[in-house]
Amino acid sequence: MTEPSGGSTDKPRRPVVVPAIALVAITVIGITALLGGLNETPDAPDPLSEGAVLDQGLYSTKFVESRVRIEPAQNEWDEEKRFVELLFDVTNQGDATASVGLPPEKPEQAFTFTSFAGSLVKISPAFDKDAGPFTFALSKGGETRQLHPGVPSRVVVRYKLKENEQPPEKITLDVASFEFESQFNDDIPAWQMISKEVGEKHLPEIKARVTMSVKKGDAA
Fold first, then answer.
1. What are phi and psi of 129, to 5 degrees?
2. Which pLDDT does position 146 carry in this prediction?
3. Average per-residue pLDDT for the chain
4. For residue 129, how many C-alpha atoms fall within 13 Å in the half-sphere facing its CB?
5. Residue 130 and residue 175 in contact, taking contact as beta carbons nearer than 8 Å
6. Residue 144's pLDDT band (boundaries 50, 70, 90)?
7. How far apart are CA 66 and CA 47, in angstroms?
8. Cis peptide before 125 (omega within 30 of 0)
9. pLDDT on residue 41
10. For the segment 150-161, what is each residue's pLDDT rounded down to a tens digit?
């Protein structure tokens, strides 16, 4: 008998060799796809420390330091007070007077804020509600809660320590930023905090995570 055209089918086949690097690449791409795609992985916020300067859009901010502030008793009926203070040099880069404001109690409450302290969306470790915060800017006339356009201001965010309470070694701030654009309900541009919808919440996008060591024992 003659063999069929094309030769015998009993001839062993050569194995196909896939380079290990290709297998690794395929695995990585598969995992990335499961996690939401190459372009959807959120960027980690910039890690900063005291002395750093951050452009927040509406504000240019220098993170000066964190310290313990001691106010001696004024008389025999008074008592010494101790505070943890966060100090910032802030310049309002907008065209209108802005507010020093207060840090939000929860991050999801911050997206409507345009005040400076409103952009400090998370402070760790957290302080008790009775501790504050107390916020103000220093001016020639004393304390103010306004930030005028183009005028650098020293801003203080202060928390009161309880008797015998030890201050934290470090404080970490999650800081948001702002953009000047049309609002969702009209075409008039205005400053607003950059945020994103997560379920039914608007969460601020964290521009930077700033860690400052707490210096101890500064008297008033």
1. -60, -35
2. 96
3. 83
4. 3
5. no
6. very high
7. 16
8. yes
9. 43
10. 999 999 999 999
Going 185 to 187 to 188 to 191, the CA torsion angle's sign is positive
The amino acid occupying position 86 is: L
Question: Could you tell me if 175 and 212 are in contact, meaning their C-beta atoms sit under 8 angstroms apart?
Answer: no
Question: Which element (helix H / strand E) includes 138?
Answer: strand 134-139
Within its chain, how far is the Cα of 80 from the centroid?
Answer: 33
Are 220 and 85 contacting, i.e. CB atoms less than 8 angstroms apart? no
Supply φ then ψ for residue 166, to 5 degrees: -90, 135
3 state DSSP class of 27: helix
Q: Using 50, 70 and 90 to split pLDDT, how confident is the model at 9?
A: very low
Q: Does residue 104 contact residue 126 with C-beta atoms inside 8 Å?
A: no
Amino acid of residue 124: S
How far is it between the farthest Cα atoms of the chain? 122
Q: Which of 161, 104, 101, 158 is nearest to 134 (CA)?
A: 158
Q: How confident is the model at residue 38 (pLDDT cuts 50, 70, 90)?
A: very low
Cα torsion for 172, 178, 184, 186, to the nearest 10°? 150
Instruction: Please name the residues in contact with 120: beta carbons below 8 A apart, sequence gap of 6 or more.
Output: 103, 157, 173, 174, 175
Residue 61 identity (one-letter amino acid):
T
pLDDT tens-place string over residues 61-77: 999 999 999 988 787 77
Token couple for 33: 């796809």
DSSP class per residue in 180-218: EEE-TTSS-EEEEE-EEEETTEEEE-EEEEEEEEEEEEE
